[in-house]
Amino acid sequence: MTRLNKQITVKQRHCKKGKGVVILPP
């Protein structure tokens, strides 16, 4: 779950414009 979480966080951070959902703070 750590690796997936890291990838998801980076993807969400990059997709912040479209989704605007971030699990961890920047």
Question: Any overview of this molecule?
Answer:
Helix content is 50%, strand content 0%. By secondary structure, the protein is mainly alpha-helical. 0% of the residues are buried. The chain has 1 helix and no strands.
Describe the biggest sheet? none
* Beta-strand proportion: under 5%
Ends apart, CA distance between termini: 19 Å
Q: What is the helix fraction of residues, given as a range?
A: 40-55%
* Global shape: elongated
Radius of gyration: 8 Å
Secondary-structure class: mainly alpha
Low-confidence stretches: none
Quick gist of this model?
This protein is mainly α. It is 50% helix and 0% strand. The longest helix has 13 residues, at 2-14.
Q: Key features?
A:
1 helix, single chain, elongated, 50% helix, mainly alpha, 26 residues
Question: What is the secondary structure topology, with strand pairs?
Answer:
Layout: H1 2-14
